[in-house]
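Thread amino acids onto this structure.
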């Protein structure tokens, strides 16, 4: 069925408290929702959460680029994700966060047309329960310990900790958090490129005795050639995040033994199609994460997680950090970080009706 109409809904969602990583603090999710409509009136939904310091994209920029891109999509088939993705990538380099929204919406339509929940359309067999960690922002030791205690009390099975600001300080953060929550609670750490090579060696060795599953993005994304040596020296498994956007990155990193695991995010891979290509090209454990998407973007991520066998870790916590929940349907969060994925055809998530009112900012392209 050809696409007839595209509507763009920019939305700023305040966070309960600032989300702080080594690249800086954020107080709001600034996301762009995309609705594709076909001639027969079906709707597909997607969401982009551009993170300026990582994607090089902003909400205003994504909105402008989406207006530029959308006319070329009108009239295209809603049922061929590969052809649509090829068109997006031929038409526009980069802009992967924005492209992920268009990709999700197209996959939503294609799965609806097939009469399948998105995870089944992607090849997944069963709707097993997923479990998310919850992330402690970078801050003082006291702040981070307090948040870690809250996360533990809320029942999350794993605590993710943002680091990358001073090696001895980071070791002290982990020591204090581990002492507070106990050695049986697994931790995941993420330096967001905040350490130099030498600092990473010192920090990771200094954290050898703690219950840490892996470390994401220890060093600058462009220093990926140093990762094999760092991995040899590190007692903690390394996970590629900012250094791995697509299947070509994954192949290059794994060919040189740079990392033990890969973190896939739809807004790095340009959506589900690119994410599947990474999963198909690798034989290491995968994490699925995101940026500051609402439950809509993470519903797409969860469908993908159910479809890819090697996904061992989910990092789907940012919707829980947001003061508004603009989404109808979608994943639900239960006790202990459990996540249930919709079993209805398509994505199973859309913006709530009040977010579609004409008084809300929106742009329609026909
Ligand atoms: Mg990360």
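Threaded sequence (366 positions):
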């Amino acid at each position: 069925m050809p696409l007839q109409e595209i509507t763009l809904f920019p939305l700023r969602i305040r966070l309960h408290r600032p989300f702080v990583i080594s690249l800086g603090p954020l107080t709001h999710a600034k996301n762009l929702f995309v609705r594709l409509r076909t001639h027969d009136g079906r709707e597909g939904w997607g969401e982009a959460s551009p993170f300026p310091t990582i994607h090089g994209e902003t909400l205003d920029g994504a909105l402008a680029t989406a207006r530029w891109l959308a006319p070329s999509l009108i009239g295209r088939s809603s049922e061929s994700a590969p052809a649509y993705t090829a068109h997006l990538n031929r038409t526009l380099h980069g802009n992967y966060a924005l492209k992920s929204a268009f990709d999700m919406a197209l996959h939503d339509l294609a799965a609806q047309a097939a009469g399948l929940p998105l995870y089944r359309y992607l090849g997944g067999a069963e709707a097993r329960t997923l479990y998310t960690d919850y992330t402690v922002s970078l801050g003082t030791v006291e702040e981070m310990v307090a948040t870690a205690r809250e996360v533990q009390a809320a029942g999350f099975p794993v605590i993710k900790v943002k680091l990358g600001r001073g090696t001895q300080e980071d070791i002290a953060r982990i020591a204090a958090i581990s002492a507070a929550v106990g050695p049986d609670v697994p931790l995941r750490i993420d330096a967001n490129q905040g350490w130099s090579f030498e600092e990473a060696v010192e920090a990771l060795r200094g954290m050898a005795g703690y219950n840490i599953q892996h470390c994401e993005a220890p060093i600058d994304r462009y220093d990926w050639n140093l990762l094999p040596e760092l991995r040899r020296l590190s007692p903690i498994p390394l996970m590629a995040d900012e250094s791995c956007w697509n299947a070509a990155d994954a192949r290059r990193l794994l060919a040189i033994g740079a990392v033990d695991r890969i973190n896939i995010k739809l807004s790095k891979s340009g959506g589900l199609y690119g994410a599947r290509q990474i999963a198909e090209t690798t034989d290491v454990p995968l994490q699925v994460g995101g940026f500051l998407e609402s439950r809509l973007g993470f519903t797409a991520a969860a469908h993908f997680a159910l479809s890819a066998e090697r996904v061992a870790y989910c990092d789907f916590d940012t919707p829980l950090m947001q003061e508004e929940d603009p989404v109808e349907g979608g994943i639900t969060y239960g006790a202990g970080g459990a996540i249930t994925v919709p079993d209805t055809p398509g994505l199973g998530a859309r913006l709530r009706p009040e977010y579609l009112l004409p008084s809300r900012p929106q742009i329609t392209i026909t």
